[in-house]
Amino acid sequence: MAKRIDVSGLTAYYGSHKAIEDISMTVEPRSVTAFIGPSGCGKSTFLRTLNRMHEVTPGGRVEGKVLLDDENLYGTGIDPVSVRREVGMVFQRPNPFPTMSIFDNVAAGLRLNGNYRKSELNDIVEKSLKGANLWNEVKDRLNKPGSGLSGGQQQRLCIARAIAVEPNVLLMDEPCSALDPISTLAIEDLIGELKERFTIVIVTHNMQQAARVSDRTAFFNLSAVGQPGRLIEIDDTERIFSNPSVQATEDYISGRFG
Amino acid sequence: MDISTQNTEAPPPAPQPTTGETKRAARGATRPGDRIFLGLSRGSGILLLVIMAAIAVFLTYRATLAIGKDHGNFLTTFEWNTNLNPPVFGIAVLAFGTVVSSIIAMIIAVPIAVAIALFLTHYAPRRMSGPIAYVIDLLAAVPSIVYGLWGALVLVPNLGGVFSWLNDYLGWTGIFSWEGGAPRSMLTVGILLAIMILPIITNVSREVFRQVPRMHEEAALALGATRWEVIRMAVLPFGRSGVISASMLGLGRALGETMAVATVLSPDFLIHASLLNPGGGTFAQNIASKFSEATEDGRDALIASGLVLFVITLLVNGAARMIIARRKEYSGANA
């Protein structure tokens, strides 16, 4: 189930451009860790190195180690496809498969992984939709297309799709930035429930959101445009927002830049 | 059309002194530029309808004349003898040949075209896909008579081996039996048509696959899909209606192809169960080979057969539109 993430000396490139440099951190299982920082500081890039999605971008390349419990995701002989089955991801824009029904969207990952009997699929889909607080809204229209839902419902559908395969870690890349405040609140409540089962890492531009949902907060920054992003500090969320140990963090949080 | 016309026709201006206010409030269509453009675009639309109507009236009129004189059954007679008095002709063989050769072409071309399009958009390195796409474009630019010559001089002499192999292993089906005649048969025509329609289906499919939103592919990747699974989950379903449209464009060309078929096929007026034995004919090929020597009645008869081809093409397009519309709510369009 939920696993610890241990990153050491991680550097990521887009072609010859170094996007993030020498990042090390530990993420505890069953916790929510928020990544904050100005645009272009490499939060999302770093997040995408945690499930080997970074290398999908043309020119994307990673150096360093990411340990999931004791297994190095970048070790030799590790298949990125199997990494992504273990580390789920929710994207900035809700992206349910437009050609699939609600049911098929949630079942999509399961069908990749193996053969399930129809009754098993039904059970898992129901459980996942309940886990994403969406079951009551969609249980009567599971065979309707997922693209007919509202933005917030679509994003919860994507969360249901991600948790249906029981990943060890759930990565969320600004999951609420395209949503209205009510839907955002629903997702934030959901994150609080999900952290009992998963290790969650969330990138957010909204500092109040980081303060509300996360246990730990990591602040990323870059010294100048074109320079690689770096991890400035990671600490308990309460401490980051009350008494950070680095001046830049305090400046960013209090709105002096960014 | 209705709505835009209503919107752009301004109500008669009230007799008021022309101030700056009322000028600005006037509808767009009263400005000269808008008026000219409206006239041009509306005129073009009407022109299209007029041309279509003129063709339809012409075809129907001449076809009715011919069918009135036909002493055979226009739909079922296996004969095309317009020099007799009264003339005897029927389109059964032509309809069969046209449909069968096009179906063969589609069966061969669509899977290959989709595979090429997928390769170009999702597998080939960028510096390779450019040149390949260019070569495919070139293939589309080759005139059909050149395909016909190639078919007659290269394809036909070299198909004998394939035909006897098919006869040995699949001859028992009847469809693939071969009596050893020159390979100028429906299958040969189908293969040639497949090569001819390959570029258009490939190009349109490639364009469709390229437009699959990156976020859908990433969604599949993040679930742990392999490259093929990404294509199956996100790319193919998204591109489905586009591939159907592309195939219809290809089918349209296959149904109407004239010179290449006329050069390769050795026609007769029989329906052959075997695709390998020479014979048969298509609408376009029949018109091309008979038109120059036809009498007035013979021309009318050919025009009647052309009208049938026109109707078949319309039916095929209608069917394709229905297939696309049936799954509209699942299309990528409302993503």
From TrEMBL, chain A:
Residues 5-247 form the ABC transporter domain. GO terms for molecular function: ATP binding. The keyword Nucleotide-binding applies. The keyword Transport applies. PROSITE patterns: ABC_TRANSPORTER_1, ABC_TRANSPORTER_2. Pfam families: ABC_tran. Keywords: ATP-binding, Nucleotide-binding, Translocase, Transport. InterPro entries: AAA+_ATPase (IPR003593), ABC_transporter-like_ATP-bd (IPR003439), ABC_transporter-like_CS (IPR017871), P-loop_NTPase (IPR027417), PstB-like (IPR005670). This is Phosphate ABC transporter ATP-binding protein PstB. It comes from Streptomyces lannensis. The lineage of its organism: Bacteria, Bacillati, Actinomycetota, Actinomycetes, Kitasatosporales.
